[in-house]
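agent> Task received from the user: take the single chain below, predict its 3D structure, and emit structure tokens. No templates, no multimer pairing.
agent> Plan: (1) validate residues, (2) run structure prediction, (3) serialize to tokens, (4) report one or two observations.
agent> Step 1 OK, no nonstandard residues flagged.
tool_call: predict_structure(input=
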Amino acid sequence: MTVGMSFKIALKALGRNKMRTTLTMLGMIIGVAAVLTMVALGSGAQASVTDEVRSSGTNLVHVNAGNYTRGGQDVGIPAGRGAATNLTVDDGVAITNNVDGVSYVVESVTERGQMTAGENRFFGRIRGVGYNWPEIYSWSWKHGESFEESQISGRSNVAILGSIASDKLFGQGADPVGQTIQIWNSSFEIVGVTDTATGDQAETVFTPFTTAQDHLQITHLHALVLAAESAGVTSKISVDVTELLRERHGINAEEARIVAAGGGTPDLPLPSTTGGTDMPGGGGGDEESFIIQRGKPKRQVPDDFTVRTQAAQALTKGLYTSAAAFILANLPQLDDVTVDELANTLDKANTTMTALLASIAGVSLLVGGIGIMNIMLVSVTERTREIGIRMAVGARAGDVLLQFLAEAITLSLIGGVAGIVLGFIASDAVTRILEWPTQISPGAIGLAFGIAAVIGVFFGFYPARKASLLDPIDSLRYE
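)
tool_result: status=success, residues=479
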């Protein structure tokens, strides 16, 4: 007897008593739904935490054109080089291709200017950005959507408004999508309004960086923003990016380092490889920069860029170089400790929640499997005479085993499909009622369906085996 025929017969057999079949599958349905909901809750919570980390910027590295510092002259740190015009799109491509741990590299061009919508005027920041800018800051949207890649490559006059900028130009709560504003004496169509409150982005108007370059008549970038795969690698990325850009910009890496081998004063803050200041071992500066080497100044080739992590920018904002140097000197260690503690806390919370939900789902699946085994044992008893007749007309023990195993698997799989549907409903209900994020992936669906199949085989094998071992003569006599 073929496998296909066994499953057809199984469906007919299960259809003889629909109520009993439905009640038998109920445990499996609840178990599979619990598994799917468990995975959805865990994945959603993890994604939510990841988005929060990303939106806070702890995984970001900022590469800015120029290398200007202030207030470090008193301790031997130069004022810096100022603006530079050789940070380019190609630098971003090189970082993407050569620096490990970077998820996105996004271009940025910034200018302050006047924006006009009808009679409303607003003076603020205008930032030209690349395609993945909303992704790295985990933007949500009040109205509309982000730029399309074709609008960036096509240098289109389109704009995204921060929520405050939108209120200033169009009024509180207005939906300006499709309307136009005047920037740089040109009309820009509004395609979206963000709901982000990150930093000053709510007061910013965003355009494609290519469009901003055209209007400002420049070909270089003011900044590149890098999104790291995890916050724990930002310090390493900043070092790797510094070395790569020095090579690309023709800056001698050895001359650009703060202290030559065997030199330096370990307790003196000095120019930084990450665009601010650092303790001995870093690099940076300008045409007037020098290395303190046993109290004797030495000329140093300057960096024409700065590289800082988001944490570095937050901790040193507004500080003079002499104070910022001491903070930046220990920032990599601070990053590592903070990230490790955060990772451990999240791992423990996730493990605890997963264990709790898994135990609930496991009990439900166990009950469902026992229910299948119980009903199959009853079925074997009820159909003992039928089994004897089949064996009498030529059915082998393997055919009988396959028949009853097919019925158990059919029960389990139908219950699994119904459980998956219920899992989707339950996950959606949790999101709507409790506002708890859920996320169901194809892998989670496959896991739930696979568990259902395994349960059917495991708990159905014993009854099927028992049926296949019945003696044909005794079975024919059974009443």
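agent> Step 4: summary for the user.
Residues 60-331 form one domain.
agent> Done.
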